[in-house]
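chain below, 268 aa
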Amino acid sequence: MKTAIIIPARYASTRFPGKPLTLIGGQSMLSRVVDIARQAADNIDDIEIAVATEDQRILDHCDKIGVRGIMTSDNCATGSDRVLEAVEKLDSNIEFVLGLQGDAPFTPVDAPVKMLKAIQDNPDIQVITPVIRLRWNELDKLRESKKITPFSGTTAILNADGRAMWFSKNIIPAIRKEETWREADEFSPVHQHIGLYGYRVETLKKFTSLPEGHYEKLEGLEQLRLIENNIPIHTIKLDVDAGLAQAGIDSPEDVQRAEDILKEIANA
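prediction:
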């Protein structure tokens, strides 16, 4: 199955212009994500890697770090629209595409590998995405970060088969009698979503042709369009070191948190 990893990297972010070129630990965020893609691609046959952007400055940076850059439209409404446009320019024979978010520099390398293995093993999967079950201290940190940046961090509700039932920028589920749950388990019942999606290309085409969903618009989460249109989203659960679950970069305030995570890793 011919596969692509596309990294959407938009320069003109409303909340954080130039975000993909921001330095974290002396290395650009985009180059960190490209490194993750390259490590994942070592385990996969017949795969392409490319960055999809709307800005020449990011294309220039792609040349500098030795990855293919694809210029896409300024009018892409979501990262998935940008991924599809890049795939169509890259190779018409691609059957499966993984969109690796350019603002998630701590994405575990095994995430794309596990996603690709799952979709190869199960031809019924149309869309796949990873989640992480949060430890209680990680949930506490997420709650604190939301006091400053309430739209940083997305949580998910899953059914017994691992299918996503809902996503929210609020922390879900609410936890009645939380102290009892804390005493029973190191891990909370909250799953944090990692913004990494794998699509069969035909499903991605269908998704991007649908109008913006009502709840998608309210939450600012494009994956809700899939749920609102009864397109199932399969999840895989990742095991990550403590602290890495909340390492996406959504705002300038998150950069310092990322720097702190790097220091924790270096001192571990």
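The chain has one domain: 3-267. The longest helix spans residues 252-267.
thats it, cya
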